[in-house]
Design brief:
The chain is built from 9 helices and 7 strands. It is α+β, with helices and mostly antiparallel strands.
Length: 217
């Protein structure tokens, strides 16, 4: 389905002028229909990336630094680049887009399924799942009818089966599938990346607020 520039701007929480500027800059795919621009509805929840994602070691280093750990276990060259990435992130006008671009390979995949909303609190307590993103209390965005979390790839099928999670056109559970389950509470660096993936104005604003509270290395 397609939408007008005005509809896209309202859904994304930006001005119509900003949306048009994104189209002209090539940041937002759109096409002409008569004298007007139209945008594919899927673009509302799609964040466009800057180049390739970072490698696993650099992602781990940035997640650690954003979570309050020193840049340890790196070569001098890797430490130099990690410092540059952190400096760029600290001064970025759109840090959420940088985080999404750099860290999108932190997971093996993303699974979106549906559960009975009444069961979400119990599912969140499953020890095989670590709440993240909008379900992490630090986000201040927790919604009672949605759940986000990390699950190890070896546990995925069992978690889906045991919690009666099913495919749906209206999913309310988002699972980040990783090789090894992260610690509880979730490292702040991963929380920031998860919020950035939502590509929403509330989530982006919270990324900025959380970054302001970081003690940068």
């Amino acid at each position: 389905m397609e939408m007008s520039v005005a509809d896209y701007a309202r859904r994304r929480g930006v001005s119509r002028q900003r949306a048009l500027a994104m189209i002209r800059a090539g940041q937002l795919p759109a096409k002409r229909v008569g004298r007007a621009w139209v945008i594919d509805q899927k673009e509302v929840n799609l964040r466009h990336s800057y180049g390739r994602p970072l490698g696993p070691r650099m992602i781990d280093a940035l997640v650690g630094a954003l979570s309050g750990r020193p840049l340890a276990g790196l070569s001098s060259e890797e430490r130099h680049f990690a410092s540059k990435y952190l400096e760029r992130l600290r001064g970025a006008d759109d840090p959420a887009r940088l985080l999404h671009s750099w860290m999108r390979s932190r997971q093996r995949g993303l699974v979106e399924v549906a559960a009975n909303p009444a069961d979400l609190a119990e599912i969140a307590r499953d020890p095989r799942l670590v709440p993240s993103g909008i379900s992490d209390e630090r986000s201040r965005l927790s919604a009672v009818r949605e759940l986000e979390g990390y699950v190890a790839s070896d546990d995925l099928l069992a978690v889906l089966r045991d919690n009666l999670l099913i495919e749906s056109d209206a999913p309310n559970v988002r699972l980040h599938v990783v090789e090894k389950l992260p610690d509880r509470p979730l490292p702040l660096g991963l929380l920031l990346a998860d919020l950035a993936d939502w590509n929403g104005p509330r989530e982006d604003a919270r990324v900025i607020e959380l970054l302001r509270g970081i003690r940068w290395p």
